[in-house]
Amino acid sequence: MTFAFPRLTHPLGLATTAQLREAGATDRVLDRLGLRGHRVLRGVYAPQPGPFGPEVRLAAAALWAGRDAVLTGATALQWHGLELPRPMALRRFLVPVSRRSKRRASGVVTHRTRRLPRSVLRNGIPIAPVERSLVDALRYRELTDRELRGLTLVVLQRRMTTADRLAAELEATRGPGRSGILDAVWAFRNGAWSPPEAQLAEGVRSRRDLPVMRSNPRLETTDGEPVGTPDGWFRDEGVVVQVHSRTYHDGLDAEGNDCWAATVESDHIYQRHDLVVVTVTPEMLAHARDTFLDTLATILRNRAGQAPSGIREAR
User: In angstroms, rounded to a whole number, what is the distance separating the alpha carbons of residues 12 and 104?
Assistant: First the structure.
């Protein structure tokens, strides 16, 4: 007897063992499909033999997880378009509390939850919102505090979620310490737009010999002419700090202008207004932050009380 793989409603044509049995598949047929490379993972088959790419494997994992399952954690962040620091071994799904948790050796696991999030669809796969995915990556210790801090700032800067939604998700969560995400939310609320800017702000706050630095203030002349929005601003000294990073200033802006060229040009604008520009790279902040802060402290001491009178923060 020849078995015809059924045409089902799944976008990729995948079918579970139960669906194949309903279509007339016997144990022998299922064994033959497995031998011929149609089995994506145990209990889920594809109409065409493998090898299978990440999208098919994830779709198969979602089928195995069952109805109402929602992808979460680090893998969900990746499917939201974020670049992870390393590959993730597990694909985690949330399921209603009425279901049991289960795990496959192929790297798929389900977790019961009383707060099943409203999912968004990515390539037909239900995925938890960014804020829940971040907090679950914390809950299951998939990412370090430093990695979570960086990713949180990225999603906030890209407006993929809001600080309020992240705070609410954290408040509803029990589990391990939340410092990575909390630090990022605090830094964003205080003006930091990227992980290097947050590192800069944290470093300045940690030094008792440095004055208060404002993050990303809008500067203008006393006549109301826009000057710029530096990464850091020391008002009484007339010193701006710019984090020069192609990672966070690459590509084109909404008007089609080169973001990197605009970043460099902004240094010249500050200088034309008699402001001192101090530049730093993310690499220096990560590996030689104390050395940079020592240099910054020296510059600020030499500039004490020398801020130009014609510059102010915009209201």
Answer: 22
Instruction: Look at phi and psi of residue 123 and say left if phi exceeds 0, alpha if psi is from -120 to 50, else beta.
Output: left
| Nearby residues of 172 by Cβ (< 8 Å), 6 or more positions away | 115
For 176-228, what is each residue's pLDDT tens digit? 556 788 888 887 887 777 778 888 988 998 999 999 999 889 999 999 999 99
What is the per-residue burial (b if ≥16 Cβ within 10 Å, else e) of 144-161?
A: ebebbbbbbbbbbeeebb
CA 117 to chain CA centroid, nearest Å: 18
How is residue 214 written in tokens? 């404002």
Contact, 76 vs 109, CB < 8 A? no
Query: Using one digit for the tens of pLDDT, what is the confidence trace for 146-170?
Result: 889 889 988 988 889 998 999 899 8
Q: Which long-range CB contacts under 8 A does 182-188 form with residues at least 24 apart?
A: 183/145, 183/149, 184/148, 184/149, 184/150, 184/152, 184/153, 184/156, 185/152, 185/156, 187/149, 187/153, 187/215, 188/152, 188/153, 188/156, 188/157, 188/163
Q: How far is CA 261 from CA 1, 32, 245, in A?
A: 68, 60, 12
Chain mean position to CA 20: 39
Task: Look up residue 280 and give its DSSP letter.
Answer: E
